Amino acid sequence: MSKKRILYVEDDETLAFLTADNLEQHFDVTHCNNGKEAFQLFCKETFDLCVLDIMLPDMDGFEIATEIRKRNQEIPIIFLSAKTMKEDRIKGLKLGADDYLVKPYSIEELILKIEIFLNRSQKSADNKTTQKEYNFGSFHFEPENYLLKNDSQKITLTEREASLLKLFLDNPNTVLKREKILMELWGSDDYFLGRSLDVFISRLRKIIKEETHVRIENIPRVGFKLVVE
């Protein structure tokens, strides 16, 4: 079986060498040391996952991710950064990233994250042909296209938002514990991801706020419930 292709973008020469050397034992790695070159390469070739440093010359990791998501909503993206600010992490996840590792990171953890997201991406592709569509309130939801629409709006969700909405619609009027949601969407239930979940919940609430018979309720200290009346 051919190795999965990873686009790895890092301008620190020493760190890039060490990381790429380890990743190449498991994956087919293409390394770029600046953002503009990396995005041009992404447009020309096919990759299975992107690992992006944030602080890059010419085009930073946030800008690359934004452009990637305009073209591909599905490919997993992992940010690497020396920045520890909560706002930077949330910004990265809102742009559609799947995870955010702070430097110095463990190579073993990075490899594990890559494998998790590649496996999840493969399962998602395998399930596309059988994935159903949903109608709730005035909305029609197509999970495989990340598309949510009604008579007045047509919204392309991020992969994470679409997965969250699908999880709710698969469990209507049922309390979902925060831990279950986090494990389903991220494979982890740490504190920071919990704060990120709140961001995605808020966005979905804004989208469906005009629906009088559909709402996402907060169950204090437990989780959330999609109420469909």
Descriptive account of the structure:
The protein has 229 residues and is α/β, with parallel strands linked by helices. Helix content is 43%, strand content 23%. The chain has eight helices and twelve strands. The protein has helices spanning 13-23, 35-44, 61-71, 86-94, 107-127, 159-170, 178-185, 191-207; strands at residues 5-9, 28-32, 49-53, 77-81, 99-102, 134-136, 139-142, 147-149, 154-156, 175-177, 214-219, 223-228. Helix 2 packs parallel to helix 3. The chain is elongated. The mean pLDDT is 86.
Indicate the topology.
Layout: E1 5-9, H1 13-23, E2 28-32, H2 35-44, E3 49-53, H3 61-71, E4 77-81, H4 86-94, E5 99-102, H5 107-127, E6 134-136, E7 139-142, E8 147-149, E9 154-156, H6 159-170, E10 175-177, H7 178-185, H8 191-207, E11 214-219, E12 223-228
Parallel strand pairs: 1-2, 1-3, 3-4, 4-5
Antiparallel strand pairs: 6-7, 7-8, 8-9, 10-12, 11-12
Strand content: 15-25%
Based on CA atoms alone, the radius of gyration comes out at: 18 Å
Outline: elongated
What structural class do the secondary elements suggest? alpha/beta
Biggest beta sheet attributes:
5 strands, parallel
Strand order, largest beta sheet: 2-1-3-4-5
Q: What is the H-and-E element order?
A: EHEHEHEHEHEEEEHEHHEE
How far is it from the N-terminal to the C-terminal residue, by CA? Answer: 49 Å
How many separate helices?
8
Residues in helix, %? 40-55%
